[in-house]
């Protein structure tokens, strides 16, 4: 615009206190104050996210880690261990059961395939008919539908003289017979689970990290814990009088006692015949 038109020059547009680029620069270069705190939080969150995405890409299952809750797999897995698992059909060895990545202990002994101190794969499975968290035990052998598997089973891991006396024999459907390394009986004999269908298998154990699972177990236990409420003494409880309008009889209501909230404990090993290999997703 010319100077001789009689109008003053237009003012420069006002800028905000800081552009987006300026905020990012200050966030990146801050050495103290709130921006430094925000940067550290964001950096930590992005690092955790990156590790999680990497583990998911490798494992093909989410969550890719479980925490061991009991001693049923000792001495090869211990309570508090964190176990990395992969998808039930990922990285399948040649000796695995068709359609899965699971090598049974029976086959593993023949081809020298060993995991966690014993032949065969250790799997995480969830029987929809059983309560509680998923189980982490060893896959012992595969049975076909209607199979009499009594002669294939190890007599030390059952208490029966024939198939008729053996639970889940003959097999109602095809699946895995499983067992905890520290348990005296097969899961299907002791009532822990029915034969494990392939679709019940959530993952195959690959790597054990000692003790790290205690973080997850402690967190799960604290979330399940409620503060106990002291019961009200019957002697000191207030009674409530009510009047029957029809008869004008005065009755005294029974005093009430407050319910006591209990703490939900982690699974406790009470005997070898009742040890479950529970696994909590981490």
Shape: elongated
- Please report which band the strand proportion falls in: under 5%, 5-15%, 15-25%, 25-35%, 35-45% or over 45%: 15-25%
Helix content: 10-25%
Number of DSSP helices?
Answer: 5
Radius of gyration: 31 Å
End-to-end Cα distance: 69 Å
User: What are the low-pLDDT stretches, counting only 5+ consecutive residues below 50?
Assistant: 226-274
Short précis:
By secondary structure, the protein is an alpha+beta fold.
Q: What can you see in these coordinates?
A:
This protein is of the alpha+beta class. It has a domain of 172 residues. Helices cover 21% and strands 17% of the residues. Strands 7-6-5-8-2-1-11 form a seven-stranded antiparallel sheet. The protein has a two-stranded antiparallel ribbon with strand order 3-4. A hairpin with a 2-residue loop joins strand 3 and strand 4. Helix 1 crosses helix 2. The protein starts with 19 loop residues before the first helix and ends with a strand. It comes from Haloferax gibbonsii. InterPro entries: LexA/Signal_pep-like_sf (IPR036286), Peptidase_S26 (IPR019533), Peptidase_S26B (IPR001733). GO terms for molecular function: serine-type endopeptidase activity; signal peptidase activity. It is an enzyme of class 3 (hydrolase).
